[in-house]
Amino acid sequence: MVSRINSRRLVTVVAWLVVAPMTLTGQTPASMRLSFADAVRLASGEVPVVALATLRTNEADARVRQARAALLPSLSVSGAWLNRTFNSKSLGIEFPTIPGNPPFPELVGPFNNYDARFNVTQTLFDWSSVRRVRAAGAQADGSRAERGVTVEGSVLTAAIAYVRAVRAQAVVGARQADSAIAAELVGLAEAQRAAGVSPAIDVTRARAQLATAQGLLLVAKNQLDRGRIDVTRALGLDPTTPLAFTDSLAPSLGAADVSVQRDSSVAAALANRPELLAEAARAAAARQTGSAIRAERLPRLQLAGDYGVNGKTVPNAIATRDIALQVSVPILDGFRREARLDEQDAVVRESQVREADLRRQIAAEVDAALLDLGSAEAQQVVAGEQLRLAESELSQSRERFKAGVAGNIDVITAQAGLIRARDTEIDARFAAATARISLARAAGVARTLH
Q1: pLDDT exceeds 80 at position 401
Q2: How far is 113 from 122, CA to CA, in rounded Å?
Q3: For residue 432, is it left (φ>0), alpha (ψ between -120 and 50) or beta?
Q4: What is the secondary structure of 54-87 as a DSSP string?
Q5: 246, 289, 292, 432: least buried by Cβ within 10 Å?
Q6: Of 168, 228, 166, nearest to 31 (Cα)?
Q7: What does the angle CA 117 – CA 120 – CA 126 come to, to the nearest 5 degrees?
Q8: Per DSSP, which regions of 269-358 are E strands?
Q9: What pTM value is reported for the model?
Q10: Backbone angles phi, psi at 102, to 5 degrees
Q11: Cβ neighbours of 246 (radius 10 Å)
Q12: Are 341 and 293 contacting, i.e. CB atoms less than 8 angstroms apart?
């Protein structure tokens, strides 16, 4: 009698785990519904890492405007009041003494001087500054390409986290089905024992299988909770945000606008990967900086002028002006310029080496993703057949057990095989989804994932 009560309690617990709302995972009626496409959209524009990359791009654009300022007019306004004395002897001029007049005093002053004026400068020719503006523009292009790298990486992280969470959700569903079957077998074993056609060991085995299924279900729910946390972290959300995933491990999950033909995929990757664009921009910036350094040998022409009023008193101040045209030609700077040129040439060569290696790496990543995708699709076929056979084996063993022609050891063995088959089938679908995501990232089109 006690044994039957314990069995009913265990079955009740498992039934609650199977059908009750998933309070352990935080899924409530107010859960935030999140699709795979929503996750990709959020990861490509609203996460902190992308926001920081956008700010770095804005900083690079501001540096372009700073470099351009060297070619634009400069205007300033100044005003001064001066009260001074000075020693006339310090001028080095002997002032003659006029007969009948006192000698020229040594101490002159004190007296006031009021001065207010506008100062304007304009560079007329400075090829070095022109080149520096272009170098800053190339660096800004590189910053935008680096932002693309950040976006692609952010999307990849969020997409993989989402697929892992969906896999955990599928495992929870599988464990719930396993628990339901185990609970049913407990009831069947007890009924068979009560009818005198089954030994007590069959009931014990069924209870042990039920307890195992219950433990696996709890582990699966914990993994789903962890998956939700990983998704919120990848999307920059509060970890306590309740999420409800609207997508499953369907064959379309992780699809993107990319060809599965090797040559087409590699060509698309070489054209789209932001890492290549960033490396090309770095090389262009280094070349423009080298040109700017070489242009420093050219003459620099500048026009300067000021206009204002000056006088010992404000009412008596008069207008004065200066206009200057200045030409400067650098001759020698201790060979510092040549060393800077050598540095930029080395930077260009370094960038060329990185670009060539990056091209080979991109081709290798595309090849690996295509191999993984082909293998995962083949695994799905095999896993689907294994699952079908495992379900058939369990069905046949249950019928034999009900008929009393076999013990439930065959049923438990078949159920264990079904658990493995379900896990294998889920893993195959997960592998296919991650392979599709990896192929999109390798081709540089992760933002088109849907």
Answers
A1: no
A2: 29
A3: alpha
A4: HHHHHHHHHHHHHHHGGGS-EEEEEEEEEEEEEE
A5: 246
A6: 228
A7: 160
A8: 300-311, 318-328
A9: 0.80
A10: -65, 155
A11: 12
A12: yes
